[in-house]
């Protein structure tokens, strides 16, 4: 750091850029007339992840919610129960139904099944990168 009388002239530059987080979660906007339930999966603001809290918005109002977008293994029953979801299956987010699906058409790719669908219609999956 520069100081008066320093034997070598120097200039101090204060950089205003710094790490914000580890990128394991992101704050996104919840659109009007939307109900978000904690621990359920959503596609909001271009990010797919699990909501960290419950939020409800009315007509003409928005709010913010934190989505957990960490590339980790998750358990969910938020699936299209008519499909198989065997281990290794690539899965997609069906925004219209609000469920995970095996159907690629017009749906966003979100991960891969690690433990197939059980008798309670629950799967485990690895969440893919947010690109």
Features of the shown structure:
131 residues; 4-stranded antiparallel sheet; elongated; mainly beta; 5-stranded antiparallel sheet
Description:
- The chain is mainly β.
- The chain contains no helices and eleven strands.
- The strands form three sheets. Strands 7-11-10-8-9 form a five-stranded antiparallel sheet, with no helix packed on it. The protein has a four-stranded antiparallel sheet with strand order 1-6-4-3, with no helix packed on it. The chain has a two-stranded antiparallel sheet with strand order 2-5.
- It is elongated, with a radius of gyration of 21 Å.
In brief, what are we looking at here?
The chain has 131 residues and is mainly β. 0% of the residues lie in helices and 38% in strands. The protein has no helices and eleven strands.
